[in-house]
Design goal:
Elements: E1 15-18, H1 21-26, E2 29-34, H2 45-59, E3 64-69, H3 74-86, E4 89-95, H4 104-111, E5 115-119, H5 121-124, H6 130-139, E6 147-149, H7 157-163, H8 166-169, E7 179-184, H9 188-200, E8 205-210, H10 218-226, E9 233-236, H11 249-262, H12 271-287, E10 296-301
Parallel strand pairs: 2-10, 3-4, 3-6, 4-5, 7-8, 7-10, 8-9
Antiparallel strand pairs: 1-2
Length: 315
């Protein structure tokens, strides 16, 4: 089999303007950075968090990449596809007990050659412990010398480094946007984009929408990912709609209306919550004497659409 070079995904990403009644009423322009269109299998921000991890694994002569996720994980899906395409073996450590019928995400991963290893939810919470990781590798007959470990979601220094390339991929220029909005699960993408914006887009604020409940701890994690004092970012924690992978009828109704108007697909775990937060913030700003008028917003579409296969109401 002939494997592709990892740099084949270093290419421009389209930026799409959208219009809705609520944007027009607010007097705001909104563009979407369509990372979801980067690649049909390794799409969204997941590629940027994987890129330098895969390059590092190859540089160190490691032929196996191991990472973690749930049954509908975008990260696991992208890692399996990348390993298959770029010539690396992959292992997915999956939260929960094995089931007879795989999710569509895990079925794809197996078809791309990923080996699945299941952990109980209690053991899965120990995935950051060095001794537990060493035990996990030994159970599989592997050693640390042959396996490159990537944390859940790809959130490590290599992942942040890749996310610093996102704005450049969209050709985003200084002075083009007042705010950049994106979903925040682990904080690595927000950290990378904030670092890039600090260097390249003075005056632009980065707003992360936390997709899990009780996400105040993420501020510490984001500071750790950034590694330097920055005041160009903020984290909004009130738009989780019940928690990670939880939804509300209000959110699903909003996503359907937005898609009908713009033909841009969103997912209810990440991007739908971001767009909902943008609308809500604009409505609230309008109540404060039209403070949002003439604002220019970029929303980063971080992908995640493959996970919609598990959401019957949106299919």
């Amino acid at each position: 089999m002939v494997f592709e070079s990892i740099d084949t995904l270093d290419k421009p990403v389209p930026v799409q303007p959208v219009a809705t009644e609520w944007l027009n009423r607010a007097g705001v322009s909104l563009d979407i950075l369509r990372l979801d269109q980067l690649d049909p299998e390794i799409s969204g921000n997941k590629w940027y968090k994987l890129k330098h991890n895969l390059l590092l694994a190859k540089k160190q002569g490691k032929s196996i990449v191991l990472s973690f996720g749930g049954a509908w994980s975008n990260h696991i899906h992208a890692l399996a596809a990348a390993g298959h395409r770029f010539g690396l073996s992959t292992i997915g450590v999956i939260r929960g007990e094995p089931v007879e019928l795989l999710s569509a995400t895990l079925a794809d991963a197996v078809n791309w050659g990923m080996q699945l290893h299941y952990l109980s939810r209690s053991d899965y919470r120990r995935k950051h412990e060095p001794l537990f990781l060493a035990h996990l590798l030994s159970q599989s007959g592997l050693s640390e010398n042959e396996v490159h470990l990537v944390p859940e979601g790809g959130s490590n220094p290599s992942g942040v480094l890749g996310c610093r390339e996102i704005l450049a991929a969209g050709g985003i220029a200084p002075g083009q946007y007042d705010e950049i909005w994106l979903a925040c699960g682990t904080g690595a993408t927000l950290a990378g984009i904030s670092l890039a914006a600090s260097d390249e887009l003075p005056g632009t604020q980065v707003k992360g929408v936390a997709v899990l409940k009780g996400a105040d701890f993420l501020r510490h994690d984001i500071h750790q990912h950034i590694g330097q004092p920055l005041n160009n970012w903020s984290l909004l924690t009130d738009y989780h709609h019940g928690g990670y992978a939880r939804t509300t009828n209000e959110l699903l109704t909003f996503i359907k209306a937005f898609e009908d108007k713009t033909a841009v697909a969103l997912d209810p775990v990440y991007t739908g919550k971001v767009m909902f937060a943008i609308k809500h913030s604009l409505v609230e700003s309008l109540k404060s004497a039209g403070l949002c008028r003439e604002k220019r917003i970029l929303m980063v579409h971080t992908g995640g659409l493959q996970g919609r296969r598990g959401m019957k109401r949106l299919n």
